[in-house]
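During the second half of the funding period, the structural biology subgroup turned its attention to how the target accommodates small molecules. The most pressing case was magnesium ion, which had performed well in the primary screen but for which no bound structure existed. We therefore specified the complex as follows and requested a full 3D prediction, including the ligand pose.
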Amino acid sequence: MSVIRSWLFVPGDSERKLAKGRGNVADALILDLEDAVSDDRQDVAREMVRAFLKDNPDRSRQQLWVRINPLDTELSLPDLAAVMPGAPDGIVLPKVYSADDVDTLANYLDALETREGLELGVTKILSVATETAASLLTFDSYLDGVTERLTGMTWGAEDLAAALGASDNRNFATGDYEDPFLLAKSLCLAACRAIEVQPVGAVVTDFRDLTALEADCLRDRRTGFVGKIAIHPDQAGVINRAFTPTDDEVAYAQKVVDMFEQNPGMGTVGVDGKMLDMPHLKQARNVLALAALIKALD
Ligand code: COA
Ligand code: MG
């Protein structure tokens, strides 16, 4: 599994924001052709995104992804045809109904990569997996086998609220997500882990509140998400920090792994007065693996 901590959305038709995004610490930009672009700016945005991709072929520090329009609109194919000459690192697919949509996109990419002389399969896919009502009932479709291009899935509560007929996605008293949205979050995480792709945390729309963002990142990380969507440049640094295991966490994980390795054949050990067994060893190994992946990024 590769890892991208911060995924910053940049409206595809804003010269200023594209330049700003490129100078930002985000591990990846998502050049948006969907909701951030008005219908009359679609052609302009496609041209700008294509030019931006071509002008920025070095992706070693920051990957460049593109969010296209949903496959059930007439915009999606022209979006893809316009941006593939710029060899985006990946495509973000919105309003997904099931894994079939992801496979359909993979087929389109086969054709377009061939047209562009790109290596077959290099373009990855991030599915925005919870934006339709049906999507909550089709998560098992990912387990039937899905294109290897799919490297991550994320969830969101904004479009889903509209799809479910909700007037709000948060409890007015506590500010926490209401049940249907937590269900979406949990299903997304489980599906990602079942097929070993990166579970990416949802956007925090209140972009001025970096304290709330950090708390949400830490909550995401504790539950198993890796990385998060951002909509404002100030959010990326917070996300990068929050998803990087701290030195203390790495040291503790190493201690747990060492204890088990020094006591082969033992299923349970005591560390710092706590009983640890196999699930804890796996968690410790996860922390070390994540830390190693992130180290490789820098
Ligand atoms: N990417 C790159 N640069 C961005 C940016 C983004 N997502 N959001 C803001 N900036 C830039 C602004 O242009 C401004 O640059 P400047 O100082 O050179 O003018 C600077 O960062 C500070 O922006 P700020 O004034 O704090 O915010 P804003 O009011 O200009 O913009 C939003 C607020 C929400 C409109 C903007 O953050 C945005 O467009 N976000 C992305 C929206 C999107 O793509 N949504 C679809 C996915 S849900
Ligand atoms: Mg949207």
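Two results from this model are relevant to the next phase. The chain has two domains: 6-242, 247-297. The mean pLDDT is 95.
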